[in-house]
Amino acid sequence: MIASEAYPYSKTGGLADVAAALPKALGRLGHDVTLITPRYRGVAPAPVVDSSRVEVAGTWFDVGFGEASLGPGARVLFLECPPLFDRPGIYNEDGVDYGDNAVRFAVLSAAAIDWLSRQPEPIHVVHGHDWQAGLAPIFLRDRFARSRPATVFTIHNLAYQGIVDKVWVPRLGLRWEDFTLDGFEFYDRLSFLKAGVNFADAVTTVSPTYAEEIQRPEYGDGFDGVMRARRDHLSGILNGIDTDEWDPRRDPHLPEPYDRDDLSGKAAAKRALLEIYGLPADDEAMARPLVGMVSRMVDQKGLDLIAAIAGELPSMDATFTVLGTGEARYQDMWRSLAARRPDRVSVHIGYDERRAHLIEAGADLFLMPSRYEPCGLNQMYSLRYGTVPVVRAVGGLVDTVRPWNPRNGQGTGFLFAEYSPGALRATLQTALEMCRGHRKVWTRLQKNGMRKDFSWERSAREYVKVYKRVMATRLEPQPEGRGI
Question: Is the pTM of this model over 0.85?
Answer without folding.
Answer: yes
